[in-house]
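call fold(seq) -> tokens
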Amino acid sequence: MPLLWTPSHVVADITLPGNTTNIDVANLDYNNDGPWQFYLMVHNPTGSTTEYRLFFNGDYVIANYYAQWIKVVGGVRSSARINKPNVEILSAGLSSIVFGTIMVDAADYARFHGINCRKITTALELIEYGICKNSTVANITSLRIASTIANGLSAGTRLIITRIAH
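ret:
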């Protein structure tokens, strides 16, 4: 696959060697490197549905985040607001690609806006997510992608964060 970015723009590029529950990215500096593009290629290796959550700066309290999503399946649309920072929900054995942007807005709230493409062929689904941390941040210094099921992030799952050129 050709590079869509130059190596100098890569903030993190993590490919999991084995199944795990969390991907932690530390030593970030949004104030100098942000905003960021976010790419997550994820597979659920478990026998259960798992949620994948995005946490900022070590704040793992789900009630400190809100998300709004819109899902399209065929011609049917649905939406909801939830009080947790989900970037994806996958049934057992399914895969997804999540692409989005991480930014701090003008009022200092950390935000994620992304689009997911999951399932295959005639079952293909498209979901758009928006996440906002409910308190302000001075900087984003760490991120965590967390599975709600133990070892819900499969070997080969890849997270890439790139700096938007500026």
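Helices lie at 30-33.
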